[in-house]
Amino acid sequence: MIVVMEANATDDQIAHMVERVKEIGLVPHVIRGTERTVVACVGDERLKAPEQLAVAPGVEKVMPVLARYKIASREVKGEPTVVAVGPGSLGGPALGIIAGPCAVEDREMLLETAHAVKEAGAIGLRGGAFKPRTDPYSFQGLGEVGLEYLAEARDATGLGVVTEVMAPEQVPIVARCADVLQVGARNMQNFVLLSAVGACGKPVLLKRGMSAGLEEFLLAAEYILSRGNERVILCERGIRTFETFTRNTFVVAAVPALKASTHLPVIADPSHGTGRADLVEAVSRAAVAAGADGLILEVHPRPETALVDGQQSITPAAFARLVESCRNVAQAIGRTL
After folding, report:
1. Which tens digits make up the pLDDT trace of 142-154?
2. pTM for the whole structure
3. Please, which of 6, 28, 35, 258 could form a disulfide with 21 given CB 3.0 to 4.6 Å?
4. Contacts for 123 with CB less than 8 Å, ≥ 6 apart
5. Main-chain dihedrals φ then ψ at residue 225, nearest 5 degrees
6. Which of 195, 117, 192, 119 is closest to 162 using CA atoms?
7. 3-state secondary structure string across 178-218
8. Distance CA 129, CA 148 (A)
C-alpha cells in the first residue's frame, strides 16, 4: 500500500510516517514528487490495517497498490523518473542514445568509437569489459583493463559509461569506473546480483530476459528498487521465439505497455532485438515512435573485424544517419533528440 502525504506535509510528519510504517512491520520507501510525497509500504500487508496510518498527522490518504511491483508502479509515482546519463538523461522530454561496441576490444578502437558517437549525438558509451558468452572459447572481454579504457574514454569525451556487471562480487569493481551498471538479459532473474546493484547506489540499466514476461521484468526491477536504488532504466531487447529470421523478436508493443505500467524510463535495444545491422535503423525509428525514452546501440568502426556481434553492429557513419532519422521521428511526436 502507499501513504499519500498532504501537499503541505512537513519533513517531521514524513519522518514520523516512516517510523510508523517500520513499527507495523513494513519497509518504507519515500518517493518525493513535484506536488506530493508518497511513502510506499513494502512487505506482507495482509494483517496490516491501513487505518493505523491514515490517522497520522500530514496524511491525505492510504491506498492499496494493485500491481505486484509496488515501487515501480505508476500507482505509486505518476510522474516519470528521470535518470541522468553523461551529458543527458533518460525519462524526460529529450531522448538519449547510448552507443558503442559490444565488447571493449582494445584502447584505440574504443576511443575512436567514443569520439564518433559523441559527435553524432550520443549521451552514453556502451562497451562490455566483462562479456557473458554462450561459447566458453569465445572472447570474454578484457576485464579490469577494459574498465580502465572505458574510464579513459569518458574522460576524453564526457560520455556516461554503461557496462555490464555479471556477478555480485564484480559490483564494487565495475561501480568504480561505470556511470551506469548494466544487468544483461541472462541475469535479469539473478536475484542476488539485482540486490547487489540495488545496494551500490549507481544507476542500473536492466535488460529484459530473453523469455521473460513484462510482469517478471518489472518484478526484477522491483528487487533493485526495494534495495533503495530509485535510478533504474528498463531495456526492451527482444525475446526468444520460434522466428529464426532475426536473432530475437523485438516487441515494439512492450515499449508503450511498460510506459503505461511504470514510471521508470524505458529504452530499446534494436541491435540485440534484431541481430542484423540492416534492420537496426528501421526498428530504432519504430521504438522512438512507440514512446521509448532512448536507445542503446552497438556501433563499431569496423564491424567485419569485431570480436563480438559484428553482424549486428553499425558503423559510425550509419549511426550518424540513424540519429538524424530518429530525431525526425522524435520531433513528430513532440519530443527532442
Report:
1. 899 999 999 999 9
2. 0.89
3. 28
4. 85, 86, 87, 88, 89, 96, 97, 98, 159, 160
5. -60, -40
6. 117
7. CCEEEECHHHCCCHHHHHHHHHHCCCEEEECCCCCCHHHHH
8. 9
- The region that residue 231 occupies, defined by phi over 0 for left and psi between -120 and 50 for alpha, beta otherwise, is beta
Amino acid identity of residue 184, one-letter, is: G
Return the C-alpha cell found at 326.
530518429
Beta strands (DSSP E) in the chain are: 2-5, 27-32, 37-42, 59-63, 83-85, 88-90, 96-100, 124-126, 160-164, 180-183, 204-207, 232-236, 266-268, 294-298
What are the grid coordinates assigned to 222, written together? 522491483
Residues 107-153: pLDDT tens digits?
Answer: 999 999 999 999 999 999 999 999 877 778 678 788 999 999 999 99
Q: How many other C-beta atoms can be found within 10 angstroms of the C-beta atom of residue 121?
A: 19
Distance CA(210)–CA(201), nearest Å, equals 26
Residue 305: other Cβ atoms inside 10 A: 10
Grid coordinates in use for 288? 522512438
